[in-house]
Every structure is written in structure tokens, then in C-alpha cells.
Amino acid sequence: MDEGKNDLINGARMRMQKIKLTINGKLYELILGYEVQPWHTLAFTLREKLGLTGTKIGCDRGECGACTVLMDGRPILSCLTLTVECDGKNIETIEGLLNSKTGKLHPIQEAFIESGAFQCGFCTPGMIMSAKALLQRNPNPTLEEIREAMSGNLCRCTGYIPIFNAIMKAAEKMRGMT
Amino acid sequence: MKRFEHFNAKTIDEAILLLEKYDGEAKVIAGGTDLIRVLKDDILPKYPKAIINLKTIANLEYIKEENGVLKIGSLTRLSDVASSSLIKTKYNLLSEACRSVGTPQIRNMGTIGGNLCQDVQCWYYRASKSLGKVFHCLRKGGNVCYAVSGDNRFHSIFGGKGCVAVCPSDVAIALTALDALVKTKGPLGERVFPVSELYKDAALNLGRSEIVTEIQVPEPPPEARQIWIKFRLRNSLDFAIVSVAVMLTLEEGVCKDVRIALGGVAPTPKRLKEVEDFLKGNYINSETAEKAGKMAVAKAFPLSHNAYKIPITESLVKRVILMAKDHRTLT
């Protein structure tokens, strides 16, 4: 086969390449070069292409943690992640926390409301995702463990204390459920 | 971000081939926590035409021990290094240094190889059009280091040949105290050399198409005490203002062996050979620790805004030695 033809086939394959993302249990197939470009971040794709605007973009430089989502169960920064590199990954965002059958909020969300753990609310989705990853790993965290797990999320309103209280409360609620 | 081509490398050789093909106009990406910021701010003199993903290469993510040498694949994430029970028990210094990097999210993304190869944090180097001004500094191929005559509060107190930005990697400091080696692969084959030699003036000591593939750490003696201290203004996210890694072996109160490395104070990890020679064979007490602290900064020559780092370095060196002696750890 001559090289020109080879390039053409490769080019065609490139054009048809799909990025498969499982987001909150639902499979999305995005066509590379059309719905996703190599320079798109996951935060951009979630918000601008898939309409999942619960994930916030604060600093867009990996400093504030507002864009935190879970990738394969671990909190990561969606503003520093290229969507093309998420092929085959399992992503959880704040939209996935609501129980779709009962319509009930997640215990962490309830605890945040009950403890007054937000004012402007911009950091909250990221905070809750970090907290969810912590409580999945460690259902009974100490205050120090909570502080460390939340050290990548900035809040400029609350002074953090209500947030730590909310996570303590959420841990209690979740332990009670199982 | 501006446009670029994106490749998922399947093997190291494929990544090297792509780097060769793009001849300096491609960048490799691992965790991306540094590179994506660099691309968003558009600080490089030449925006890369291609980004080559290393995460798709199989078998670069591992932690294992072979014949008394700890081997860590360069794509191993910092959170995995920090939480590995093998590393916590025998190489605690490395575990603590990894745990002090960035934030939990950054550690879940960032890799040990990427941490070693990250770009410096100098604000003249990092300034961009979007922030209002670009400094074509030494690191970018210019002929001036703007920090020398400018605001250099976070820069080197031990000079530098030209560029005075400090080595930003915490992992490199811990690995220097552990006498670790780094293994790389490039078009000319593989190289193995000490981690501290990965850094040279105003650049990384890597060829254009060379990739870090493995970190090798010799097993410390079981009685060695390892301490890591990172001084910074916030306890999360911040880079080190001064960091100290120490590995101390005592025999009835007398120092049998010691290795001390400083971070945040020089363009490369700084081994304190003279201080180590002084301590070896001496009793470790508050007097010798204090003398060690003084010796550590004896040859410092601060810039206009960073003399404050000298007393910090002096007291941290004293502190780590005493902490190692007393088996104390930071809480």
C-alpha cells in the first residue's frame, strides 16, 4: 500500500475516533474533532458540551478545587484534565448525587444544607465531590483526616468550620444508612 | 488553550519517535497538572504543536523492590507513592515528601516523573501575555534573569549560573537525601544517573527526546531515621520556601551516617556535604545540631529580597537533625 493511501485511512480513522465517557453511570460517546477537540478540558466538555454545569470553573489553573470531579473514584481537577485522555474513564459529578429513584438529595448534600456549609455556593460542588471520595474510602474520618482531604478546595465565605461539621454529620448519616 | 495535535503513545519508543519527529515542538504529558497550566498561560517561547500522552503506555506505573532497590515507574501517581505501605515503612522520607505536594487532587493526577520534570515557578518565567507582560528570560533563551534585579523573594540564596529560580520538586529533594537514581530513555538509549543531576542551570538535564522512565532508590539501613520538613506559608498547595530532607543513622548517640538535602534555596537539590562530614563521628546534641545549621548557610549569598530564607534554613536544619535524633515527627 502506498503511503498516501495509508495516511488517508489513518486520517479517516482519526476523524471517526470516539471518546467514551461514563458520567454518573451514563455512557457518552463524543466524536473527536467534532464534539471534542484535543485541547478541550474535561471541565469545558462537561459544562459546554454536555450541559453539566454543576461542575464549576474557578481559577481554571488547578488551585481552587471548584472543578473537582471523581475519576474512577478519586477526586481530580477537571480543569487540568484533557477530555481526550479520559477515554474509557468513569466520571462522577455533582449531578450524579441525587437519588434519581427517590428524588432525595445525597446525605452529604443534606448535611451541607443543614450545617449551613455554604454561602455563595461556588465551591460547594467541588467540596462535596472531595467529601464523597473521602467518605467512600473512610466512613469514619477524624477532623484531621477531613481537613487533609479537603485541603485542595478553597472556600472564601465560610471559614471551613461549617464544611468540616457538615462532613462529620454526613459521615454519621451515611454510617446510619448501612 | 491554543490548538495542538494529540497522540496517545503506546510504548516509550513510540513517544520518543514522536518527540524526534516534532524536533522540539512537542511536549509529553503525564499528570498534566503543570503542563496544562503552562499551556493555558501560554508561557513557552514556542507553543507546542503536539502533546504526547504517556499515560497510555503500559507498565510505567509500578512500585516494587528488587535486590534491595526500590523501583518506581515514572508514571506512578504521587498519591500512590505516598500511600504505599512499602514506601511508608522503609522510605518514609519519600512518602512524606509526596504527601506534601500540592493538594489531594493534584497528587491523584500528578506522577513522580512529572513532579521531577515540572517547570520552575519563577514569576518572571511564568508571566504571560494574559497577565500583561512577557519576560524573555534566560530560561526562554533570552540573556537576562529578571529575578536577579527584580522581586526575588522566592528565589535562590545559593546563586545559580544565570537563572536563580529554585528547583520546584519536593520529590527531588527527598530522593537526593535517599541517594536515588533516575533512569531515562532517549533516542541514544537508556541512562541512569543521580536525581540531583537531573537539574542544571536554566533547564533540565534531559535531551530533547529523552523521557524519565524509572526512579531507583537504594534501601536505607533499617535503623536510619528519615525526616522531611517543608516550610511554606499555607499548609496546602504552596511550594516550599525552604524544605529539608534528612536521613540519619546513629550508633549510641554518635552519627554514623547522615545525608541532608535542601530544597527551595537553590536551582538544584542541595546536598550539604560539608555539614554531613562535620556530623559524621560526632555526638548529636543541640550544640552540634546548631553548628550544623550555621554551617548549612555559611556559604549562602542572598539576593535583594530573600535574606529571610537564611534563618529559616538554619533553624530547619537544626530542627530536622534533632527530630531525627529524638525520633520525633511533625504532627
Entry keywords:
A: 178 residues, alpha+beta, Ubiquitin-like (UB roll), DNA polymerase, domain 1, 2 domains, B: 331 residues, Enolase-like, domain 1, 31% helix
| Largest pleated sheet of chain A | 5 strands, mixed
The secondary-structure class of chain A comes to: alpha+beta
Tally of individual helices of chain B = 13
Tell me the name of the CATH homologous superfamily of the domain at 225-326 in chain B. CO dehydrogenase flavoprotein, C-terminal domain
Biggest pleated sheet of chain B: 5 strands, antiparallel
Span between termini of chain B? 41 Å
Helix content of chain B: 25-40%
Helix content of chain A: 25-40%
Compute the average pLDDT of chain B: 95
**What's the CATH class label of the largest domain in chain A?**
Alpha Beta
- Radius of gyration of CA atoms of chain A, rounded to a whole number: 19 Å
Mind explaining what this structure looks like?
The complex is a heterodimer of chains A (178) and B (331). By secondary structure, chain A is an alpha+beta fold. Chain A has two domains: 3-95, Ubiquitin-like (UB roll) (Roll); 107-177, [2Fe-2S]-binding domain (DNA polymerase, domain 1, Orthogonal Bundle), CATH 1.10.150.120. Helices cover 39% and strands 13% of the residues of chain A. Chain A has helices at 3-16, 42-49, 107-115, 124-137, 143-149, 161-177; strands spanning 18-23, 26-31, 68-71, 74-77, 89-92. A five-stranded mixed β-sheet of chain A has the order 2-1-5-3-4, with helices on one face. In chain A, strand 1 (18-23) and strand 2 form a beta hairpin. The longest helix of chain A is centred in the last third of the chain and has 17 residues, at 161-177. Chain B is α+β, with helices and mostly antiparallel strands and 331 residues long. Chain B has 13 helices and 14 strands. Chain B has a five-stranded antiparallel β-sheet with strand order 4-5-10-6-7. In chain B, strands 11-12-13-14 form a four-stranded antiparallel β-sheet. Chain B has a three-stranded parallel β-sheet with strand order 1-3-2, covered by helices on one side. In chain B, strand 4 (63-66) and strand 5 (69-73) form a beta hairpin. In chain B, helix 5 (92-99) packs antiparallel against helix 10 (170-177). The N and C termini of chain B lie far apart (41 Å). The A-B interface holds A 37-39, 41, 60-63, 65, 68, 71, 74-77, 79-82, 84-85, 130, 148-149, 151-153 and B 1-6, 8, 29, 32-33, 36-37, 39-41, 51, 53, 55, 79, 102-106, 108-109, 235-237.
